[in-house]
Fold:
Amino acid sequence: MAQIGILGAGRVGTNLAGKLSQAGHDVILGRRSPAEGTPAPPEGTGPRVSFADQRTTARTAEIVINATPGDSALDRLARLRAELAGKILIDVSNATREAADGLPGELCLPGGSLAEKLQDALPDTRVVKTLNTMLFTVMTAPETLATPPTAYLSGNDEDAKKTVSGLLGDLGWQPAWIENLGDITTARATEAMVLVVPHILRRHGFEPFAVSLAR
Structure:
């Protein structure tokens, strides 16, 4: 089992922390400031979840998940280049500007992707993009959807993607539901999928869904 650091202690980060800790991993939830208090670990996680500031989390963990807001993630993580060197960085965020109603709006990086920018800024880190094409609850409970969902993988390092596929299995993803798209440039496609999300949310509310591949 790995020691996993999650940058971002909001609903996405705590949701991932709960399931990964239940699978036996030690999880560090990285908050922006240690002065944010000491919240209780997510329900049902027990002692395997601890809290630290984000720099300590990045330095200590073996594998790091970026669950911070995508529109500011590049600047934030670029400052952690030394701490993230030699590690796998799993990016589950989307870089969008908010629409008037607070839902995701236009892409911050049209013609590119946050994952590519992160890989450029962190050349000694193996970046893998995944889990950014669904409501956050589906990340840890894919089996609850009526139709098998898809978790896409983008990244330059095949061994890193194999490791991430193993973690997806711990989150409940079956191998047949995981689609390896190729190198990090393929994240442009999955990040662009977020453009359909606000329309779904406006019509149906926050019901679990995923933008998936049907065969």
The longest strand covers residues 26-31. Residues 41 and 49 are 6 Å apart (CA to CA). The chain has a mean pLDDT of 92. The radius of gyration is 16 Å.
